[in-house]
């Protein structure tokens, strides 16, 4: 979320990106469901999905809270909102309300929420403090804000080390910041939450260490493939550079002894004070 057009998203909002986000959600889904359960999201809850994307988490939340609960999905991309609406309709979920708007452009008319869910949104917006304020205002006293945001993106490495992948990670971070975002935004979130009237209740780092045979390997490897093309489109790299990264990752994946360490995510649960 870094502007006003569909292509202003770091990787766009096209069909391939919707599919990649589906894979990403499948990788993280067991951890997310457990996080929501511990945070108290249950039947009858009212939940705001902040930066809902194509609606994968929205659907899970709608099914958890059931017909006596309610999910509000806030998302800027019309492409993503359409996909989410169609998925909810296909599953017969009538307890979802969509808000197609840029969270940086104006107030969100949602209040009294039991919980908010925000994954990899704060790292892309131009003003994380404004996002946190929006979240705080949407919650009722005692409601909880739940975040999954990157804490240390440079933990994304291979063992043994792979310099082309490390160069790729550095370029991704640089392009991210050039668009107005901050990949390591979780470093700032606890302080921003406290300032907005929330008390941090839970902090937990999340990182995977996986061989090529693990299903999770597909998540970062598909990100590499799509982002290489995006970096080329932006003119930040040339074809030879992208080929070197692609070859190095393919060679690493062919060796069953390789390990991938994924970018570190911080899970945060904070409660709104009275």
What is Rg?
A: 19 Å
Helical content stands at: 40-55%
List the helices and strands in order.
HEHEHEEHEEHHEEHHEE
Strand order of the largest sheet: 3-2-1-4-5-10-7
Summarize, please.
The chain has 274 residues and is an alpha/beta fold. The protein has helices at residues 15-39, 56-65, 78-90, 128-138, 163-178, 189-195, 218-233, 239-253; strands at residues 46-50, 70-75, 96-100, 113-119, 139-152, 157-159, 198-206, 209-210, 259-261, 264-272. The chain is 41% helix and 23% strand.
Q: Can you give keywords for this protein?
A:
single chain; 274 residues; alpha/beta; globular; disordered N terminus
Describe the secondary-structure layout.
Layout lengths: L14 H25 L6 E5 L5 H10 L4 E6 L2 H13 L5 E5 L12 E7 L8 H11 E14 L4 E3 L3 H16 L10 H7 L2 E9 L2 E2 L7 H16 L5 H15 L5 E3 L2 E9 L2
Parallel strand pairs: 1-2, 1-4, 2-3, 4-5
Antiparallel strand pairs: 5-10, 6-9, 7-10, 8-9
Structure explained in plain terms:
α1 crosses α7. The chain is an alpha/beta fold. It has helices spanning 15-39, 56-65, 78-90, 128-138, 163-178, 189-195, 218-233, 239-253, and strands spanning 46-50, 70-75, 96-100, 113-119, 139-152, 157-159, 198-206, 209-210, 259-261, 264-272. Helices cover 41% and strands 23% of the residues. The strands form two sheets. The chain has a seven-stranded mixed sheet, with helices on both faces. A three-stranded antiparallel sheet has the order 6-9-8.
């Amino acid at each position: 979320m870094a502007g006003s057009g569909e292509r202003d998203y770091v990787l766009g909002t096209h069909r391939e990106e919707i599919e990649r986000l589906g894979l990403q959600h499948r990788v993280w889904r067991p951890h997310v469901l457990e996080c929501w359960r511990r945070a108290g999201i249950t039947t009858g809850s009212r939940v705001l999905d902040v930066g809902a994307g194509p609606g994968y988490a929205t659907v899970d939340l709608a099914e958890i809270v059931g017909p006596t609960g309610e999910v509000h999905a806030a998302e800027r991309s019309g492409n993503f909102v359409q996909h989410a609406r169609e998925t909810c309709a296909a599953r017969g979920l009538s307890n979802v309300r969509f808000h197609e708007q840029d969270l940086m452009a104006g107030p969100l008319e949602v209040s009294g929420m039991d919980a908010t869910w925000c994954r990899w949104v704060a790292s892309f917006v131009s003003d994380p403090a404004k996002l946190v304020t929006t979240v705080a205002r949407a919650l009722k006293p005692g409601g909880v804000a739940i975040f999954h945001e990157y804490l240390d993106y440079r933990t994304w490495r291979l063992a043994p080390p792979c310099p082309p992948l490390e160069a790729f990670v550095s370029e991704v971070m640089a392009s991210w910041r050039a668009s107005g975002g901050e990949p390591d935004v979780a470093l700032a979130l606890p302080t921003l939450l406290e300032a907005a009237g929330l008390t941090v209740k839970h902090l937990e780092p999340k990182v995977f260490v996986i061989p090529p045979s693990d299903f999770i390997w597909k998540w970062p490897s598909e990100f590499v493939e799509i982002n290489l093309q995006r970096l080329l489109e932006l003119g930040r790299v040339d074809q030879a550079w992208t080929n070197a990264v692609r070859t190095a990752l393919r060679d690493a994946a062919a060796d069953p002894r390789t390990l991938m360490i994924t970018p570190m995510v911080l899970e945060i649960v904070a409660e709104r004070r009275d």
